[in-house]
Write a structure and sequence with these properties.
Strand content: 25-35%
Distance between the termini: 22 Å
Largest sheet: 7 strands, mixed
Helix content: 25-40%
CATH architecture of the largest domain: Alpha-Beta Complex
Number of domains: 2
CATH superfamily of the largest domain: Medium-chain alcohol dehydrogenases, catalytic domain
Low-confidence stretches: none
Structural class: alpha/beta
Mean pLDDT: 97
Radius of gyration: 20 Å
CATH class of the largest domain: Alpha Beta
Number of strands: 20
Length: 354
């Protein structure tokens, strides 16, 4: 085993470094992974650029990365379901306490949860990383490492569509065609949505959405009002959508989501925007439009793996750029500039395959 553990470490706002750290030793219920593919998320870039997200502030050096897959190289003494050589996808949120949220199956809401690359917890953008074995999921032979890493963003789509109640015949509007909007599209289609409208400012992103199965890619102009856009969506579908999944966090887009959704429908808020947002709440209230939040995901990895293994969902086109771990800063800059869709870092110097 290579005796150095090259890691991508954020020291403070704007200060991203490549450092050699010790290789960790797994505890009884942990496994040591040789990381293979790690995707860069908008939150990683946000921490780099701003040093914080809401109440989560980078106060000490933190390893970034939470969209990950790798190979087991060592197992803890109590681990029975994994062995060295197994290829796994990593679920980055591990509950620390058996609290009410854990017991009810909504462990993502546990206030004490460990989460990769959320201060003060280190992420897995490194050569070697240890993680709870119960939150490492074996990948079938026909699912690649990159697909395994993409289960994390795909899980946001699964959780959002579950919260929205997407089912056979649903009509769906998705606001934003970035990586999260696109995975919501893939999942909505796989769950039986009959028609999906997706909106974005970028024609390139909408072209990708069309390739991935969007029925109506709708370009947004900055001068469009929320009501105008809502009307346009109704005209495209012939009726208002049952469900709207908002992936931008932008105030005007949240307003559009509420106006566009049919009475008795559901708006799910996935995008993170300003703490205070002005929305037409009375409009939602008198039309019984439910507004639901989404915080990460829970209980999604088994479904995601089944979707990928059965080829019901194809996430491969989402990866547009690949960099070796040594070029992490360049990879982060590519993501910051909004180039392509998903940038993937390859952490295993002897295996740079997808």
């Amino acid at each position: 085993m290579d005796k150095t553990n090259l890691s991508v470490v954020l020291h403070s706002q704007g200060d991203l470094r490549l450092e050699h750290r010790p290789i960790p030793e797994p505890g009884p219920n942990e496994v040591l992974l040789q990381m293979h593919s790690v995707g860069i998320c908008g939150s990683d870039v946000h921490y780099w650029q701003h040093g914080r997200i809401g109440d989560f502030v980078v106060k000490k050096p933190m390893v970034l990365g939470h969209e990950a897959s790798g190979r087991v190289v060592k197992v803890g003494s109590a681990v029975t379901h994994l062995k060295p050589g197994d290829r796994v996808a990593v679920e980055p949120g591990v509950p620390r306490d058996m609290d009410e949220f854990f017991k009810s199956g909504r462990y993502n809401l546990s206030p004490t949860i460990f989460f990769c690359a959320t201060p003060p917890d280190d992420g897995n953008l490194c050569r070697y990383y240890k993680h709870s074995a119960n939150f490492c999921y074996k990948l079938p032979d026909n699912v690649t490492f990159e697909e395994g890493a993409l289960i994390e963003p795909l899980s946001v789509g699964i959780h959002a569509c579950r919260r929205a109640g997407v089912s056979l015949g649903s009509t769906v509007m998705i606001c934003g065609a970035g990586p999260i909007g696109l995975v919501c599209l893939l999942v909505a289609k796989a769950m039986g949505a009959s028609q999906v409208v997706i909106t974005d400012l970028s024609s390139e992103r909408l072209a990708m959405a069309k390739e991935l199965g969007a029925d109506f890619p709708q370009e947004v102009k900055r001068e469009d009002t929320a009501e105008q856009l809502a009307k346009k969506v109704e005209e495209l579908l012939g009726a208002q959508p049952h469900v709207t999944i908002e992936c931008t966090g932008v105030q005007s887009s949240v307003q559009t989501a509420i106006y566009a959704t049919r009475s008795g429908g559901v708006v799910v808020l996935v995008g993170m925007g300003a703490e205070m947002t002005t929305v037409p709440l009375l409009n939602a209230a008198i039309r019984e439009v439910d507004i639901r939040g989404v915080f990460r995901y829970c209980n999604t990895w088994p479904m995601a793996i089944a979707m990928l293994a059965s080829k019901k969902v194809n996430v491969k086109p989402l990866v547009t750029h690949r960099f070796p771990l040594e070029q992490a800063v360049q990879a982060f800059e590519t993501t910051r500039q909004g180039l392509g869709v998903k940038v993937m870092l390859k952490c295993d110097e002897n295996d740079q395959s997808p």
